[in-house]
Amino acid sequence: MNKTSHRLWFALVAFFLLAPSRADAQGHRGTLQGQVKDQEGNPLKDIVVRIEGLNGKQTYELKTDKGGRYFHIAVDPYLSYRIVAIKEGFWTEESVGVRASRSQSGGVNNFTMRPGHSTDAEMTRAERDTLVRELRQAEEIKRTVKVIDESHKVAMRFIGEGRYAEAAEAFRRVVELQPTLAPTWANLGHVYNKLKKPSDAVAAYQTAIELDPENATFYQDLGHVYSDMGEAGKATEMYQKGAKLTGSQDPKEAAQSQYIIAVDHLNSGRESEAMEALRQTLAADPEHADAHYYVGVLLIRENRMKEALDHLGRHLEMSPESPTAADARALLEALRQTPEAAE
User: Fold this and answer.
1) Could you tell me if residue 307 is inside a domain?
2) Are 74 and 107 spatial neighbours (Cβ–Cβ below 8 Å)?
3) Looking at the 3D structure of the chain, how many domains does it have?
4) Is there a domain that residue 69 lies in?
5) How would you class 156 by CB atoms within 10 Å of its CB: exposed for 0-12, middle for 13-18, buried for 19 or more?
6) Nearest to 118 by CA among 85, 82, 152, 142
């Protein structure tokens, strides 16, 4: 065989060894490659390049060519890898969390080697095992976070569609994966309440409050559940706790909390307590239109017509299109015919 034939034979061998098979090109295969140089930019030959799958099951070892290049195919593109470059007289270099590329031009990870104490700097086996374990845990956390995010989106879509049973199942999946998410427990409480499962709703809201005791909304929502159950005392207690928390934050939120308490009193026939809560509502937010309406109604019952006229008039000025606006106009018209209002 002459020199030309030798060169052709070697070229063909190199082609078939390096080129991916049709099965690899069509299957789930990826490429890892790169170049190793010294600090002056000179390529380094015979650098040992170790490729380790972070699943602990795949390990490959190869050496760089005279151009400092390494190339490896048929690795899983969905798996993360640790790549280590080792050579006597240089510090060991490594990259962790590297992903392969399905393109032969991708999956590039280059190294610059620094003169040093050779492999003395290489991780011990125990250190490497610890790192691999931690990175596996990080990968698992990423997968869990993705499932949580997808389940939450699905649950919120189910709520929008009125499919509360499916929403509850999605939220339960979230809290099974991550039981410390207070907002998810609160969402679960809301869904249980929609499903007419008040005991489950109470338990879910109580868990949310245990996880985030400074969230006023959780207390208010739990108050609604208690109110629906006919537990007026417990409802008022929750409303008051929510009001206390919002009182130090935003005046309008504090006013709304007091208004909720007032409505609960009204629904239970406790008019004097309702009036006190409405007064506190207006003290925090003088522009609370609904509070003006109910104060006006209660004042009529107390035969304080002039004051009632004022509050009902304020209600119409602030909210002329509200659901109670027609009632307010009718009351005002009737009040203006009374002698008390004329005085």
Assistant:
1) yes
2) no
3) 2
4) yes
5) middle
6) 85
**If we measure between CA atoms, which residue out of 198, 200, 194, 240 comes closest to residue 220?**
240
- For 92-144, what is each residue's pLDDT tens digit? 888 888 888 776 555 688 999 988 755 444 555 666 666 667 666 666 766 76
**Which tokens is 121 given?**
């700097």
Tokens coding 250: 């935003």
Of 118, 129, 52, 123, nearest to 86 by C-alpha is 118
Contact residues for 234 (Cβ-Cβ < 8 A; gap 6+): 223, 226
User: How far is 199 from 261, CA to CA, in rounded Å?
Assistant: 21
Distance, CA of 100 to CA of 33 (rounded, Å): 9
pLDDT of residue 12: 41
The pTM assigned to this predicted structure is 0.46
Cβ–Cβ < 8 Å for 64, 70:
yes
Residues of the chain with pLDDT under 70: 1-28, 74, 103-107, 117-132, 134-139, 141-142, 144, 246-250, 340-343
Residues 6+ apart with CB under 8 A from 107: 30, 31, 32, 33, 98, 99, 100, 101
Rounded CA separation 131/125 (Å): 10
Q: Which residues contact 278 (CB under 8 A, 6 or more apart)?
A: 258, 259, 262, 291, 294, 295, 298
Q: Among 87, 122, 157, give the residue marking a domain's end.
A: 122
For CA atoms 289, 291, 293, 299, the dihedral sign is: negative
Q: 184, 192, 236: which is closest to 211 by C-alpha?
A: 184
> 255 and 178 share a domain?
yes
Looking at the fold, whether 174 and 322 belong to one and the same domain comes out as: yes
8 A C-beta contact, residue 96 and residue 135: yes
Residues 246 and 284 in one domain: yes
